[in-house]
Amino acid sequence: MPVERKLSFSKRSGQHFPSKVEGVQTFGEMPENPEFRIPVDAKDRVLHAHLKVGNTDLMISDTFPGQPYQIGSQVTVAIMINNVEKSKEVFEKLQEGGQVVMPLQETFWSPSYGQVTDKFGVAWQISTQVANNS
Question: What percentage of the chain reaches a pLDDT higher than 90?
Answer without folding.
Answer: 30
